[in-house]
């Protein structure tokens, strides 16, 4: 059964940054599927802005490899390949052990409390069967670690990688580790792994930099290993309805 499309409320006067955040949020929240056409005219009507402003936002998303722009064909949400998926996770495995080490060295108590609160929200989303929210919260968990590490450059890089990870999960889905069936789970039926996130939190609490970095790399390796590289059809949304203001 398809999930009903959701409209996104927004302020009456939108900046380019506001439009960008709504579009990237729709990707992270799995409402914009890979291959979805992003028509400047429809988005302009939906947001109540000119096509020129929409074009500027799409150029930014293309630079982050979330959107693909083709001459005479417009923009579409990127459709990652298996090679793209491996590259993204290899990049994450390079930078996230360093980020969690930085978090342990730099973060304050309230930042750890925020991380624990996100984990609790992720667990609650899993328990109520809201996999879409669980996957979004998983990404926020990793971004919170990056923010607390105090390295703005790596934080920016990870933001792009997490957006691309979301597209990868939308495109391929994941297998459950203990599943006998070869059929892949749909993307909203599996998330980043609360148990492994809990282990990361415990290593942070213990201020064990080596263990935390090792756990992070292992966690990301597990995520890549459980991706099912079989595409599943995803219905395209009505983008004008989704983003219409008022």
TrEMBL record:
Cross-referenced Gene3D superfamilies, in alphabetical order? Answer: GntR ligand-binding domain-like (1.20.120.530), Winged helix-like DNA-binding domain superfamily/Winged helix DNA-binding domain (1.10.10.10)
Q: Where does the record place the HTH gntR-type domain? A: 13-80
Keyword line: DNA-binding, Transcription, Transcription regulation
- SUPFAM superfamilies registered for this protein in UniProt: GntR ligand-binding domain-like, Winged helix' DNA-binding domain
Q: Which PROSITE patterns match?
A: HTH_GNTR
Q: Does the keyword Metal-binding apply?
A: no
Q: Which Pfam families match?
A: FCD (PF07729), GntR (PF00392)
Question: Which superkingdom is the protein from?
Answer: Bacteria
User: Which SMART domains does the entry mention?
Assistant: FCD, HTH_GNTR
Protein name per UniProt: GntR family transcriptional regulator
Tell me what organism the protein belongs to.
Answer: Uliginosibacterium aquaticum
């Amino acid at each position: 059964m398809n999930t009903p499309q959701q409209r996104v409320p927004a302020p009456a006067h939108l900046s380019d940054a506001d439009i960008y955040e709504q579009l990237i949020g729709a990707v992270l929240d799995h409402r914009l599927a890979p291959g979805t056409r992003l028509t400047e005219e429809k988005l302009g009507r939906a947001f109540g802005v000119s096509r020129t402003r929409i074009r500027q936002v799409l150029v930014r998303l293309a630079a982050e490899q979330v959107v693909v722009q083709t001459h005479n064909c417009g923009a579409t949400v990127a459709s990652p390949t298996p090679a793209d998926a491996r590259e993204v996770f290899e990049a994450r495995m390079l930078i996230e052990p360093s980020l969690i080490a930085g978090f342990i060295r730099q973060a304050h108590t309230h930042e750890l409390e925020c991380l624990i609160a996100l984990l609790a929200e992720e667990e609650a989303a899993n328990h109520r069967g809201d996999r879409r929210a669980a996957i979004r919260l998983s990404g926020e968990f990793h971004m919170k670690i990056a923010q607390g590490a105090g390295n703005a450059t790596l934080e920016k890089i990870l933001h792009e990688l997490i957006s691309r990870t979301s597209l990868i999960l939308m495109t391929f889905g994941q297998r459950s580790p203990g599943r006998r069936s070869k059929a892949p789970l749909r993307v909203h039926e599996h998330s980043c792994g609360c148990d492994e996130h809990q282990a990361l939190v415990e290593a942070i609490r213990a201020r064990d930099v080596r263990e935390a970095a090792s756990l992070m790399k292992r966690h990301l390796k597990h995520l890549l290993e459980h991706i099912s590289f079989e595409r599943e059809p995803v219905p395209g949304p009505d983008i004008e309805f989704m983003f219409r203001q008022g």
